[in-house]
Structure formats: C-alpha cells, structure tokens
Write a structure and sequence with these properties.
Chain A is α/β, with parallel strands linked by helices. Chain A is built from twelve helices and eight strands. In chain A, helix 9 links the parallel strand 6 and strand 7. In chain A, helix 10 packs parallel to helix 12 and helix 11 packs antiparallel against helix 12. The longest helix of chain A has 20 residues. The radius of gyration of chain A is 17 Å and the shape is globular. Chain A starts with a helix and ends with a helix. Chain B is an alpha/beta fold. Chain B is 42% helix and 18% strand. Chain B has a six-stranded mixed β-sheet with strand order 3-4-14-9-10-13, with helices on both faces. A four-stranded parallel β-sheet of chain B has the order 7-6-5-8, sandwiched between helices. In chain B, helix 2 packs antiparallel against helix 4. The longest helix of chain B has 15 residues. Chain B is globular and about 55 Å long. The chains are: A alpha/beta, B alpha/beta. Chains A and B meet through helix 5 and strand 5 of A and helix 1, helix 8 and strand 11 of B.
Chain lengths: 264, 393
C-alpha cells in the first residue's frame, strides 16, 4: 500500500491533494468524481465523512455534507466507497472528519475498519493534540499515520508539539476561519510554511481557501510539500448537479490546471 | 496535555485547532479575574444596581396548596431583562471588557441570552452580533425586536432546523475568523472548556442566594430543588450551592415535547447517548450513525440536542435526577400560574413548575420545595394564545 512517505519522497514535486465529501452528491457519482480526480493528477486524496454539525466548514462543504447525508452516507458506506477507490488505484487516502462519528462508531473499531480498507490517516477537525491520547495508541496499533493542524495563530512552542505527534504531514491552515473559497492566498502562508519547516522535516501541506491554480502555484513556491483543495472542487459539484458529464469534465479540467501549475 | 474542564469523563476541549489558543487565553483571563477584588466588586455593584439582585424567594400559595407542601419560586424572572441570563451576560461582558475586547457575539435560542448580550453591549458600548435560528426568530419576535432596538445585529441562521444548535454552529464559525478582536459570550453551561465553568461561576449566584433565603425564611434547607434544563445554565446555577447538601434532592426538568417516546422532544439526558458536540463530551441526541438529531420543544430556550457536561456527570453519579414535562403540561402550567399567581412564566421555566405539579401529594406538609423561575413569559404570550385561543375569549 502506498504511503505518504512514498509520495513526499519526490523532492521538488508538490503533492496535489483534492478534498471531497464521500457520497456527494450520491455514492456512484462520488466514485466517478474521485476517479476523475485520480486520473487528472491527484497524488493523495483527502476525503470527508459527512457530519450534521461541521463547525470548521463553510457553506459549500456544509451543503455537500447535507447532500451526502440525504443519500444515506455513513461510516460503513464510506468504507465501502474507499474500498472501491483503492481497488481502482493504490493512492494514499486521508480522512478528514468530526469526532462524534468516530466516538459513536467506537474509536478502536473505527480505526481498525478504516485501516482494513486502506485509509492512511484520520484527521479529526475537532480533536487537537491535547486529546490525542484518545486516538494515538490505536492509530499506532493499526499502522496509520497521524495528521494534525497548525494555524496562523498556533504558537511556535505548540507547532513543535504538533510536529512531535505527527507522522504523516502537517496540515497547515492558511487563514483564520472556516473552509471556503477565497479571492487570494493569505499573505502569511509563506512565513507560516517556513516557520514549520524550520522546526521539522515533516511534509507541510497547505489548505483552506485554495481556489485557483495560481493560488496552488503560490503555495508551492512558498515551499509547501502539498496543496489541499476542497471548497473550490466541491463548489464545482454543486454548480453542475444537473449535468454529471459536465461536472466530471469541470473537475478534471480544474485538477489538470492545478497539476500543470504545480509542475511548472 | 489534557486540559482542565472535565466532569468525570465529560466535558473537555474538542474544538478546531484555531480555537485552542483563544480558549486558553479565555481560561487564563477567567482564572485571573474571577476572584480579583476590582472585578468582583464591579460585578457585585452591577448585579445589585443595574440588574436588581438579589431576586426574591417567593412562597406561592397556589402551588403550595396544589402540591401539598411549601413551594417557593426563586424569582429570576424579576431580574433586569426578564431572565437569569443576565447573570452570565454581566459576568462575561465584564470579562470581555477586562480582556480589552470591543466586540461581542452570542448565540440565542429563546432570545433571552441574545437579549442579555445586547443589554450588556448597549451598557458597555460594545458592538454586538447575535446568531439566531430562523425558526426561533419567528417564534420569539418580541425579543428579536428588543435586541435590534438596543443596537445589536441579529444574524438569521438557517442550518438544519433553524434553532439553537445551528446558531451555535454559525457563531463558532464566525468566531474562528474573528478571534483577534471578538469575544464569544456563550450563553449556556455547555460548549468547550472553559465555558461550562465560566457560566456556572456566574450563574451560581442563584443558589447562593436561594440557599440563604431558604434558611432565613424557612429555618431549614429545602427537600428538593428543581429547574428546567436545556443547555443547563439556570439549572447548574440553581444546583451549585446545594450539591454538597446531601439531603437536598436535585431535579432537572427537560423538555419532553410531544412525549418522551415520540421522538419529538429535547430530553437529551433521558433519551440521548454520550457523544461529542460543540466542543464537549456529553449526552447528545443522535441517530444510529452518530449524526445529531433535531430536538423539539415548545420552548426555544430548551430546544437543544446537547447538554452541559456537568449535568451528564450529575446524572451518571446519581446526584441529580432528570425528568421531563411535555408541551401540553407546560401550556396548562403557564395558564395556571397566570390565573392563580398573576405571574407569566417563560415556557422554559414552566417546565419545572409543570413537573412539580405532577408530584402533588408526594411531600410532607412541612417540606420545602424551590423551583427556579428562570424567566418571565411576556415573550411567550403571543405563542400561548395561538396554542390556546379559547383562553382569551
């Protein structure tokens, strides 16, 4: 199974990491969307399991959650979908989700089942390093990597603590706020990436607000090892809900554009 | 390192990373000022001269007759603004001022906490944004208008049900983007640490007063103390100083809505299971997949599928009992208290009174029962008349 290490071993290449909500807008279309993303140049997938109360997400991903939930998406179905994706291509997959779903499933059982279908890491939006003791033993036991977040207001000391608990990559939140598209990349990204690079050799990936190939390029030039693009892509699903071929085409085109910008 | 703010295994700090430094700064400020001489003196003065504390403990002859013992009402409804919410509003508002924050945001269900925050904003000259569900805006219009008159901006929140849960979600989202200059004045004893501790600290004045008033007026402690429970702020304030009095039974009354077994209620402690919502581990109403379920209550202030973590702990340890009152019982009680005592109880507070009425004949004649009448029901008069048009014919 491909690991994050395999991907980030290619020095000088910035990883392209699209985010989608599993089951958005329905199981089969979701599979086709993710397949398109893989074919268009994604290196890693960041996938969400929808939650009723996503407090770290803006309107675009909230709506995607609702679409997926209305189709009956849950953790079990998410694992089935991941299994299909992994069967199509061995690509590293990180889950990005909220703690209640894991707690309710049973923490140990969740990690065991996720590992079985080939999930590489689980980033829990509302579980910080302070409570990581609740998930670290089982993460290690099932052989998964850890991913934690750093934000523009995370102190230097805490960045070091985050790095100490991370084995996969550091998810750098580029701005203060929730997920969503933005007109420009936050000016503080370059400094933030450099600060983290100065204290750790872990890969640093940047997400939140990345909305164009220019943004992605700017983040790559700032020294990031990966770029995570969520709301922009999820927004393309929303605008093409009534025409699936157009939806897949728009998503494929956008990811190819970003791929080219990153590989320049 | 685990943060403080645990009640047994409940509570905690389950929030996005961006909020961690902000909550740590809030915790530090709270620790620094809560016993600070200047802070406590200023709060005491405002509580007395601005808000009207202490509130009276009133023996209700009508309720005493029906129930068969001495039934007292702790009159939080007489506080400025018409509910206990201002206790916390003043405390956190002052904390915001001491922290140098100029902007307040708050969520509100019934509008009472929004009103308290708007009140503080007007009095202290701070900019106020209130997040309120669209369903709640509709059913609590008098409070919405009052908030606007006091200069607050009311931000409608659609969400899944347009109620308190959605308002909290959006207030948290707004806060993550404005943490540098904005103070989130959280209204109930839920949410991430340190909020449950802060809200309890500023609400426990209710039981501090009630306990002494009971000793002064009755010469003994009460047999039972009860309060309605939504998120749990008035209940935790009402219980706080009685928790160590082992002989005093504590009862929280949840919104049983159409009935505890109808699926249409907000009885989180009686029908929920343990989960993580809005930053804390506590009981929540959730489905088989762990998705949060929409609650139902006639009272916007109790219409919440979560509960403060200390209540979960009080339930687990058996120190407090949690029961329910239905929408219909609440309407009956609203009318009874209006007709027999000339008091309009808030729909929220009427839950506690309604449950006591079901206990008629269960007490010894010289027993003393204290009900926290957490708010007044002027805001609910229009709704009541819609539910019971015959009562004004």
């Amino acid at each position: 199974m491909k690991t994050y290490k395999d991907i980030f071993a290619h020095k000088g290449k910035t990883a392209l990491i699209p985010f989608f909500v599993l089951g958005d807008p329905d199981m089969d279309t979701s599979y086709d969307i993710i397949k398109t993303a893989i074919d268009s140049g994604a290196d890693i997938l960041e996938l969400g399991i929808p939650f009723s109360d996503p407090i770290a997400d803006g309107p675009t991903i909230q709506k995607a959650d609702i679409r997926a939930l209305n189709q009956g998406m849950n953790c079990h179905k998410a694992f089935e979908l991941i299994q299909r994706i992994k069967a199509y291509k061995d690509i590293p997959i990180g889950l990005l989700m909220y703690y209640n779903l894991i707690w309710h499933y049973g923490v140990d059982a969740f990690y065991q089942d996720a590992a079985k279908v080939g999930v590489n890491s689980v980033l829990i939006a509302d579980l910080s390093i302070d409570d990581a003791d609740e998930i670290l033993p089982i993460t290690k036991q099932v052989g998964m990597d850890t991913v934690f977040m750093v934000t523009p207001i995370t102190s230097l000391q805490r960045k070091q603590q985050v790095a100490d608990k991370t084995t996969g990559f550091i998810y750098t939140v580029s701005l203060l706020g929730v997920t969503g598209t933005r007109d420009q990349v936050s000016g503080s990204v370059a400094g933030l990436v450099q600060e983290i690079k100065a204290i750790t050799d872990l890969p640093v990936c940047v997400g939140f607000g990345v909305s164009s190939s220019e943004h992605a390029r700017a983040i790559a030039l700032a020294g990031a090892d990966g770029v995570i693009i969520g709301s922009k892509l999820v927004g393309l699903i929303e605008t093409h809900l009534d025409n699936k071929p157009d939806m897949l085409k728009a998503i494929g085109q956008f990811i190819q554009e970003v791929r080219e910008a990153l590989d320049q | 390192m685990k943060h403080r703010g645990r009640y047994g295994d409940f509570g905690g700090f389950y929030v996005p990373e961006v909020l961690i430094p902000v909550l740590e700064a809030l915790e530090a400020a709270f620790d620094r000022y809560k016993d600070d001489a200047q802070f406590t003196a200023e709060l005491a003065l405002l509580s007395r001269d601005y808000a009207g504390r202490p509130t009276p403990l009133y023996r209700s002859p009508a309720l005493s007759d029906i129930v068969g013992c001495h039934v007292y009402l702790k009159r939080e409804d007489l506080m400025h603004g018409g509910a206990h919410k201002l206790n916390n509003g003043l405390g956190q508002g002052l904390l915001a001022k001491y922290m140098g924050k100029k902007k307040l945001i708050a969520e509100t269900g019934a509008g009472q906490h929004g009103l308290a925050t708007a009140t503080i904003g007007a009095m202290m000259g701070m900019e106020v944004k209130i997040f309120m569900g669209t369903t709640d805006i509709e059913r609590q219009m008098p409070n919405v208008q009052k908030m606007k008159l006091m200069g607050a901006e009311v931000i409608p929140v659609e969400g899944a049900s347009g109620t308190l849960k959605d308002a909290i979600n959006d207030a948290l989202r707004y806060w993550t983007a404005h943490v540098d200059d904005t103070f989130y004045l959280f209204g109930t004893a839920a949410g991430p640490h340190p909020y449950p501790a802060i809200v309890k600290h500023f609400q426990e004045v209710i039981s501090l007063e009630a306990r002494q008033q009971c000793l002064d007026q009755c010469g003994k402690l009460p047999t039972l103390v009860t309060a309605c429970v939504g998120g749990g702020s008035n209940a935790i304030g009402t219980f706080a100083h009685f928790i160590q009095d082992e002989g005093v039974r504590l009862v929280g009354v949840e919104a049983a809505g159409y009935g505890l077994d109808t699926g249409k209620h907000a009885a989180t402690l009686q029908r929920g299971s343990v989960g993580v919502l809005h930053g804390a581990r506590s009981y929540v109403l959730q489905d088989k997949d762990g998705q949060i379920i929409e609650s139902h209550s006639i009272s916007a202030g109790l219409d919440y599928p979560g509960i403060g973590p200390e209540h979960s702990h009080l339930k687990e340890t058996g120190r407090a009992d949690y029961v329910g009152a239905t929408d219909d019982e609440v309407l009956d009680t609203f009318l009874l208290l209006t007709r027999k005592e000339g008091i309009f109880p808030a729909f929220e507070s009427a839950h506690a009174v309604a449950w006591i009425l079901t206990q008629a004949g269960q007490f010894k004649p010289d027993d003393v029962v204290i009900i926290n009448l957490s708010g007044r029901g002027d805001k609910d008069v229009d709704s009541f008349i819609q539910y019971r048009p015959d009562s004004v014919l």
